[in-house]
Amino acid sequence: MNNLKKMSLIRVAFYLVLLVVVLGSCKEEGRDNIMEELRVEAMLRFQGDYTLIAAYSEKPVDMNNDGIKSNDLFKENCMMWFSEINIVVAGENDLFMDKNECFVSQSWPTENDSRLKTKEVISTYEKPVYISGYNMFMTGVHGHFSSDLKSCQLTRSPKTSPENTLIQYEEMRLDKNDIVVIVALRRVFTKDGWVTTKVESWYQKICKV
């Protein structure tokens, strides 16, 4: 009898362990399915190239030495027209990113030595025009999508250097209408010298990758 009782207890324990394993496996599979659905939707909606359509500084700045400060950076620097971002969403079997991750690269006009020495008024245009006082600098960071795909947390900000005026990324907002908004703390060179300000940049998708 004792042996039979022990065998029954062993069977019960075995089935309990098996049940826990099966339930855990189903839960993990369900989570994987949700993450895969998020990855596919993020890829369809956000992957691709974007061009800058608006850029606003929290502080009014005079970047073109005309004595007039503005929050609209397009009025201060026509090199803004060259700014672009590219978003790459994790692949199905990506070895370097999780399913809710992406890689965001951004090009941004940064001041060179020529700009720092310029005292005269710098002409601005309502179209892309190259200015010798700026170089386009590329920054790349990883991001994590929110579960509702309304935002993306950029996980790393590069150190400030003479070639890179970005201090840190604060947020990236995602819109269904092919619009991405990046908020970052940046340094900009003005008539009064360097100014640190929060910049909100609006990008419109121009093609899918």
List its salient traits:
209 residues, alpha+beta, Lipocalin, 8-stranded antiparallel beta barrel, 2 helices, 9 strands, 42% strand
Tell me what the structure shows:
The protein has 209 residues and is an alpha+beta fold. It has one domain: Lipocalin, CATH 2.40.128. Helix content is 24%, strand content 42%. It has 2 helices and 9 strands; from the N terminus they run αββββαβββββ. It has an 8-stranded antiparallel barrel with strand order 1-3-4-5-6-7-8-9. Strand 7 and strand 8 (179-190) form a beta hairpin. The model has no long low-confidence stretch (mean pLDDT 85).
CATH class: Mainly Beta
3D shape: elongated
Sheet with most strands: 8 strands, antiparallel, barrel
Number of domains: 1
Task: Report the span from N to C terminus.
Answer: 70 Å
At CATH's second level, what is the architecture?
Answer: Beta Barrel
Number of helices: 2
Uncertain ranges: none
* Strand arrangement, major sheet: 1-3-4-5-6-7-8-9
Percent strand equals 35-45%
Indicate the structural class. alpha+beta
Oligomeric description of these chains: single chain
Radius of gyration: 25 Å
Order of helices and strands: HEEEEHEEEEE
Average of the residue pLDDT scores: 85
Number-wise, the strands total 9
CATH topology: Lipocalin
- Helical residue percent band: 10-25%
